[in-house]
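Box 3.1 A note on notation
Throughout this textbook, protein chains are presented in two layers. The first layer is the amino acid sequence; the second is a token string describing backbone geometry. Keep the layers aligned when reading.
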Amino acid sequence: MGKKLVIEPVTRVEGHARVTIVLEDSGKVKDARVQVIEMRGFEKFCVGRPVEEMPRIVTAICGICPWAHHMASSKAADALFGVQIPETARKIREAAYSAHIVHSHLLHFFFLAAPDFLSDPGADFGVRNIIGLAARNPDLVRRAVRARHMAQEMTGIIAANATRPDAVVPGGFSRAMSEEQRQELLPMAREVLEFTRFAVDFAKEKVFIPQWPQVKEEPSLATGFLGTVDANGGLNFYDGRLRLKQPGDNGNYKEFEPKDYRDFIEEQAMDWSYVKFPFVRSAGRLSLDPEDPVGVYRSNSLARINVCDHITTPLAQQELLEFRETVGRLPQHSFLQHWARLIEALYNSERAVELLSDPEITNPNVRETVTPVAGRGVGVVEAPRGALIHDYEADDKGFITKVNLIVATTHNSAAMNIDVLMAARRILDGGRSDEEALNKVEMVIRAYDPCFSCSTHVLGGALPVKLQFRDTRGQVIRTIQN
């Protein structure tokens, strides 16, 4: 009959998930699935709301990345209303968003991922965490906490609310930035930049350069990559065109406007998870077979680093060149997502300093008037975990009639499942199930920095729900399933 290994909950990630690994009698891994076991349903209960309320509502999707949803929603509303926001509003939006990206990337690397790399993966879980890391290296953790907090504070100064922002509105920004605020923010941005420079150097010395020779010998999943680039092919988080590269394209790619994403991406639901599974439409189908991963792509830090031609800020561009010299032009190994993530933190730190150094960011012209119309609007930003798509349709009174969200983690659903299966077969074949082995499987998931709170949605039809009633001994006595 074989047996199942269940990792529940997956630790040091945002949201809730479990990994179910099916073993044959011989101990060989037959299958593995990352099952997301929470549901949001924002696409349904936002129907009927005024379009202008959407940027405020969707920040409640997640407490980690509310700014990503706030920004994508506002851009979708801008597009639906057909409004071009003032240049100053764009600069303020991007400055706040750059700070948010830094906060999220530092949170992931130092709080969630670093305990695996800066301690033995087989160490007791009681010390293999941020508290244990702080005990071993208090100065490092203190500096990381300060920089992350400062980046978060910057978003609060700009928008008056860091965790539930409502300052980005259809047509621009709800308030101008004062010169006093700019002068307060600029030294904070410079301090954060200094830390991200240190963080990249620290991680290269302690983690990436020493571990890469061994890691690159492991088999890695070959997928396509999706990310946003500006008009010159440069890395961009706030605005641009989506670029899709697939394995074997030999440098070729498809590039398209965000509003046309349906022509290139198709969505599929599975009966064993609340996460949708997007795939490349031209592939015609989705396969989760590691030997034949048809239609699979990734959208995350490594994807963005791979699809862009260059980075527009000097320090991050220098790091990109070193990264490519070390690991190649289109590397696939998921371990490299951590390295790419810190390069992106450096870029966003530099970008925040650039924007806040511009006195024009205090121009009081920050908002255009909008008028309710019937139509469709698509807004896309690069969330910390990948491309975030908000797609709204509204009636002639400006009320939402349809919502579709493709959240960053969702893009990576297929790849994450295949990656976990490949890792399980490499690590657990033979029946091994000790703490170190299971943690190494979890490390594959953490490389994606998934936000399962964001990514759980229903795709059409009825939501699959199963209720189990257990007696006092834990035995299932009744099951109800729709």
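The CA atoms of residues 134 and 140 lie 8 Å apart. The chain has one domain: 39-418.
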